[in-house]
Structure formats: C-alpha cells, structure tokens
Amino acid sequence: MPANDEEHGTAAAFTGIDRIIHEPARLSILAVLRAFETADFVFLLKQTELSRGNLSSHLSKLEAVGYAEITKEFVDKVPRTLVRLTDAGRKAVATYRAEMDQILATL
Amino acid sequence: MNRTETMDNVEMKAMRATIRDGITEMLLGIMLLVFGVLFYFASSLAALGVLLQPLLPLLGKLLKRKYVYPRIGYAKVAKDPHAARGIIWTAIIAIVFILSALGVFVLTLGYDLGFPLWRSHCIPATAGILMAIGPWVVARTYRLARWYAFAVLSVLAGVGLPLFNIATGYAAVGLQSAFVGGLSLSYGLGLFLTFLRKYTVEEPSHAGE
C-alpha cells in the first residue's frame, strides 16, 4: 500500500473511534468503572481527580448513551450515588480498546 | 505510554485504592496471630481459630463502613471469573508438591530416619507453603510487593524455624503463623493510621446535582 493510502487508512480508522469513550475524562471514568461491579460518586471523584461538576456532567453523558447506570440510595441516612458500567458500556470499552490497539499497531 | 496501557494503570490504581487502608492486612494478621498462639500453646485448641473466620469479614465490613467509605468512597470489585480458578490451581500445585515431597522423603530419608524428621521439619515447611497461597494470590491480583513479602516470609519461616533449631513440629507452625500474623497486623495498623491521617471525610454528593 502506498504511504498516502496507509495514512488515509489510519485516519479512516480513527473516525470509527467512539468519541464518547475517547474523551480523556470519560475514558478515565470508564477505566475505573471497568474494574468494579459498582462504585460510588466519591470513589470516582477520588480516582479520576475530576471536579464534582465535571464528574457529574460526564456521568450524565455516559448514562444518556447507556454506558453507565446511576442509582441513588441512602446508607445510614447519608445519600449515596452508585454508578455501574452497563453491559453495553463494558462491550463498548472492550471494542474501543481493541480498536485502539489495532490502530497503534499500524502506526 | 499508550491509551490502553493508561487505562490498565488507572484500573489497577483504582483497585489498589480499595486495599490501601490496611484492613485486609490487619484481618489476616489477627487470624494468623490467634491461630499461631493457639497452635503454639495448645495445638488441640487451634480449631478454635476457625471460629474467627466468619467474624473477621464482619469486622472488616464494619471498619470499611465507618472509616473507609466516608473518606475514599465505596467500590465493589468486580468478580473475576478466573480468580477462583487461579486459587484452585495454586492449591492443587501446592498439594501435589507437598505429596511429591512426602513421597520422595518416604523413598529416601524416611527409610533411615523415620517420620520424626518429617514431623519436626517438613510439617512446618508444608504449613508455610499452604499459608503462602492466599497472600500470593492477592499479590498477583493487585501486583503489590508487600503481599509477595508475606508469602515469601511464610515459606521462609516454615523452613527456617526448624532448620535453625528455633522451633520444630507443631510449635514451629504456631510460631511461624504468629510471626507472619504479627508482622501483617503491625503493617496493617500502620497503613490504617496513615490512611486515617491522609484522607478526610468527604461530603456525600449526588451525581447530576
């Protein structure tokens, strides 16, 4: 394949990347969530080092696309927000990883 | 470092965060210490140590709920379907190794020396290997040096105590258990106190507010 076509091929591969996941803040949230069955807002806050507002906004976006599920509960009269990666989210992250590995291998 | 490596690092860092409070080390320490002391002074009472087993997770949950979750939040580690298989394989390998050692012993030294040597030297070494399985699995899962150290110390104590004539037989098993337990408990307490000093209680918060 000529160099130009190769470059074009790599660029085309990038256009297929899931933009929701590719954003660094959301990627770090998803990377944390991937290891856990469920995690609360404070835990995500500590691990991602995002601001409360920022984390909240990214979680809302992940919930809107169906990658994360957010539930609220009270433990000892203290409110707790639990976040869980949905099956679709877990699958999307796995696909994203595979695609990124493939692209990096071609560079 | 590429993105997938960064993802793995973020994931591992988050997983380690759930055990940096030292509670796991403290619980392991208490269990081994009690078991070791009972075994050393009255091996027939060592079974009482088993009664602790269901109580320790309750103590762990209580400590987490009171001191850990308000500081760094709550997270439940996803069940790794390969973890149980890993523990089972490690246990099988350890048992095969021990039985092979017993077989080799019977066919060689056992003829001349009989079983007192097995009781005095090999039982503590066997106990050391078995005690090392749990810490080894934790060390591999979280890639933590301190847990590798606990595993290696268990084996070394099991081999070393009879070898240097400090203790033999069941007394050595009790001592090695108490020794590793004491170290684990002290280390866990240190981690727990550092954790309490380092992290303050967080305001509870809802996403989307």
Molecular structure report:
The complex is a heterodimer of chains A (107) and B (209). Chain A has one domain: Orthogonal Bundle (Arc Repressor Mutant, subunit A). Chain A is 64% helix and 20% strand. Chain A is built from six helices and three strands. The longest helix of chain A has 20 residues, at 87-106. The two termini of chain B are 35 Å apart. The mean pLDDT of chain B is 83. The chains are: A alpha+beta (107), B mainly alpha (209). Chains A and B meet through helix 3, strand 1, helix 4, helix 5 and strand 3 of A and helix 1 and strand 1 of B. Strand 1 (36-40) of chain A pairs antiparallel with strand 1 of chain B.
Give a short synopsis of this structure.
The complex is a heterodimer of chains A (107) and B (209). With 107 residues, chain A is α+β, with helices and mostly antiparallel strands.
Describe the structure using short key phrases:
heterodimer, A: 107 residues, alpha+beta, Arc Repressor Mutant, subunit A, three-stranded antiparallel β-sheet, 64% helix, 20% strand, B: 209 residues, mainly alpha, 8 helices, globular
